[in-house]
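chain below, 138 aa
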Amino acid sequence: MPPGGVASSRRQARERALSLLYEAEAKGVPAAEVLRALPVAPAPFVTDLVAGVGAHVAEIDGYIRRYAKGWAIERMPALDRALLRMGVFELTRRPDVPTGAVLSEAVDLASRFSTEESGRFVNGVLGQIARDVRSDES
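prediction:
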């Protein structure tokens, strides 16, 4: 296990997944195609995130459209869109991942790689979705 344990490896996995989802969008190809083209399979968590987003993108985009008030998903920065999709996938399909970890990592990645306002935007949208889909958490 790397220093920092599971949290550190998941942080790296999310960053890798973000780059693959961004690549798929930039090339206009399905996420699964980007995964298949890799010479070495990525870590299982990366594969789960990328394949999961790809398999459930219509449902995930439905959440984003509903909660990103005043924002057309097509007009969002591509990185924000990829981060939101990854976050929604984790919130809706990965109950083993704590809500705080999903939000914190998405905001961190948005702050590091996207626009100045992206961290707040991603936090606001994912926070609302988390309150609805994970209402049983305290």
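The chain is about 70% helix and 0% strand. The mean pLDDT is 92.
thats it, cya
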